[in-house]
Automatic annotation (TrEMBL):
Pfam families assigned to the protein according to its UniProt record, in alphabetical order: PMSR (PF01625)
Reactions catalysed: [thioredoxin]-disulfide + L-methionine + H2O = L-methionine (S)-S-oxide + [thioredoxin]-dithiol; L-methionyl-[protein] + [thioredoxin]-disulfide + H2O = L-methionyl-(S)-S-oxide-[protein] + [thioredoxin]-dithiol
Superkingdom of source: Eukaryota
Function: Catalyzes the reduction of methionine sulfoxide (MetSO) to methionine in proteins. Plays a protective role against oxidative stress by restoring activity to proteins that have been inactivated by methionine oxidation. MSRA family specifically reduces the MetSO S-enantiomer.
Sample GO molecular function, one term: peptide-methionine (S)-S-oxide reductase activity
Peptide methionine sulphoxide reductase MsrA domain ranges (all copies): 49-188
Signal sequence annotation: 1-25
Annotated EC: 1.8.4.11
GO cellular component, one term: cytoplasm
Stated family: Belongs to the MsrA Met sulfoxide reductase family.
EC category: oxidoreductase
Protein name: Peptide methionine sulfoxide reductase A5
Length: 248
């Protein structure tokens, strides 16, 4: 590598740490941006699963790190109000839309994560988040999903009969994407991570598999071995050269 380039990289890395808005950020962003675009991969067949399990900030993190999940986004579904908003969701529930490659992960595995990631027995809420918009729902598309969802709910209920699993299973009708500030919420709270992937414009951030994984990492909801792997990868990138994270 050209020595001037190396010095410039080192300078940019140091700026990354000393200033929340480094002078080098614009240049860094352009360069990272052009590289990142090629990293967005589109598997041939992507399926969609939608779940409501409490606050969609956390829900998005819960699914983002799974192998085979291509991307996640958050929105509102399950109600009748048109154009729901965060402060005014009407009768909708906050939910996560999971796009996945069925060759790598099965719908039934997503259901397992759904059950493991929330308390399906709490009525209209999760922990301190209380309200109708935090209710638990599996949105289905087609009879196969209905059958798998119903069977998984029965298994969940069978674990204990002392309280009722409140989860509803209902066909997915309209999904309203949530406002930009709620997408990749955990990642957006970590400016350094955003910068590491090149401060992507909003629409690329939404489409990026890498951002999806990092959002889960930022929420602390990757599997422990993945949390560790991503942590050390970030460390490597910061130590060794051009500070752009392209894959994990
Ligand atoms: C249901 O799945 C099919 C493909 O299997 C898709 O074309 C359709 O858009 C889906 N419906 C909804 C409401 O997402």
């Amino acid at each position: 590598m050209n020595p001037a380039y190396t010095i410039l990289s080192a300078l940019l890395i140091s700026l990354l740490f000393v200033s929340p808005d480094p002078i080098g950020a614009a240049r860094l962003t352009d360069r990272a941006h052009s590289r990142q675009s090629t990293a967005i991969q589109q598997p041939q067949s992507v399926r969609v699963a939608v779940f409501a399990l409490g606050s969609f900030w956390r829900s998005e993190s819960a699914f983002g790190c799974l192998p085979g999940v291509v991307r996640t986004s958050v929105g509102y579904a399950g109600g009748s109000k048109t154009n729901p908003e965060y402060r005014n969701p009407g009768d909708h529930a906050e939910c996560v839309k999971v796009e996945y490659d069925p060759r790598k992960i099965q719908y039934s595995e997503l259901l397992d994560v759904f059950w493991a990631s929330h308390d399906s027995r709490q009525v209209f809420g999760q922990g301190p988040d209380v309200g109708n918009q935090y209710r638990s729902i599996i949105f289905t598309n087609g009879t196969v999903e209905v059958r798998l969802a119903a069977a998984s709910k029965e298994r969940e209920q069978a674990k204990s009969r002392s309280s009722v699993v409140t989860t509803k299973i209902q066909p997915l009708a309209a999904f309203y994407p949530a406002e930009a500030e709620h997408q990749k919420f955990e990642l957006k709270r970590r400016p350094l991570l955003l910068q590491l992937i090149g401060n992507l414009p909003e629409e690329e951030l939404l489409a990026s598999t890498l951002a999806t994984k990092l959002n889960a990492y930022a929420g602390g909801l990757c599997a422990p071995h993945m949390q560790k792997r991503i942590y050390s990868k970030i460390g490597d990138v910061l130590r060794n050269g051009w500070p752009v994270l392209r894959e994990i």
